[in-house]
Amino acid sequence: MAERATVIVSNRGPVSFRRGPDGALEGRRGAGGLVSGLAPLVAGTSTTWVAAALSEEDREASASGVVEADGLRVRTVALDPEDLRQAYDVVSNRTLWFAHHGMLDHFREPTFDATWFAAWGAYRRVNLAFAEAVADLAPEGAVVLVQDYHLTLVAAALAERRPDLVCVHFSHTPFARPAELAVLPEAVRAELMGGLAAHAACGFHSERWAAAARGCARAVGHELTTFVSPLGPDPADLASSTAAPACGEALARLDGLVGDRAFLVRVDRIELSKNILRGFLAFDHLLASRPEWRGRVVFGAFVYPSREGVEAYRRYREDVDRTIAEVNERWGTEGWTPIVYEPDDDYLRSVAALRRADAVVVNPIRDGLNLVAKESVLLNERDAVLLLSEGAGAWDELADDVVPIDAWDVVAAAGSLHRALAMGAEERAERAARLRRVVAERTPARWFADQQAQV
Ligand code: G6P
């Protein structure tokens, strides 16, 4: 089969532009899981990555069409800033994200009023602008890999403009069950699911999300062709991070800070679906119910602010800050801070924390995959126990060798923390070895090949 040209389309792109010392625009690569996995695969190839211009410098770069940045061919799409804000904050993050994560309490207050429908108009315009950019640059017969809920309507718009292109969609999130998506107006659901049905295939990290999406499509008269292809970390990329001097320095600092205590670690964006608060409440209950752990364990919370344009996220961040302060106030002593909170997005420090952890907490309510869980398995140097909740897509692959942690029941979760922290060395080593084997099976290269195999 002749290789088809490939175009990747995502809201947040692989690089962000800045002005260098000489005043010229420079593209710097971001550190997200998808970017670090895909960038090495597509660098130096003819693949073009189309993404929203998220800053003034990105907008300036868009004027030059496709630009070469950090080995990647990137085309930023300049959008009306207010349209982008409405499409991103209101439709993508405040509506679709919460629906796909089953967080229906966010629909308690009236949502679908004239203001919301204006934002939906902006979402349509943003999707259309992406479709126009792709239509302009995609080589004849190219495969277009559309990423995530921000861009559900791109393929339908492309079908009219460029019927030669084949679009494949991939959702890195979970997908709402039909009863959950039903909180959205029926016409909106029909347009969204029709948008997904305009793809040759729709991919998911878990069959659970694929089945939900098929059900949502059927409910409004569409059929989806789905496939399941979980992503995995890129071992070479992780190795280059651990080799960085700043990672070694962070590791030494954390080592000094933890000493001979047990080190419980979590690494997350401050994101409601990650269920960060209940993790701290479980820790609080552990200290209350099992005094033997007081002074013997440090919970490293490497959680950093995200999507602060949405009020629910800002409030959640305040709750996180307050809960940490309360737990530390309740249990802390002269020489022991129970929760060490470092709320900056320092990637190499987070890598160091996962290397040093004795147990890693991943307890989302629902999560598309959770790449951090898989990264921790490959990075960790102490046979850390992975605590994982069933809501994570990665559960499908890892369940046999994790310690399950209940996302909702704080008392049960405290029991899981105890079980993980108390586990003997032999069992930890056996589980960690099996987890490493399972995680190594899924690389970004395999994930990328699965997308292209859909056409
Ligand atoms: C997470 C999700 C992705 C999503 C991304 C957007 O990583 O797993 O599905 O595309 O967030 O993040 P952003 O910071 O751009 O809102």
UniProtKB/TrEMBL annotation:
Any matching Pfam family: Glyco_transf_20
GO terms under biological process: trehalose biosynthetic process
One term of GO molecular function: alpha,alpha-trehalose-phosphate synthase (UDP-forming) activity
SUPFAM superfamilies: UDP-Glycosyltransferase/glycogen phosphorylase
Protein family according to the UniProt entry: Belongs to the glycosyltransferase 20 family.
PANTHER family in the record: BCDNA.GH08860, TREHALOSE-6-PHOSPHATE SYNTHASE
Protein name: Trehalose-6-phosphate synthase
Organism: Iamia majanohamensis
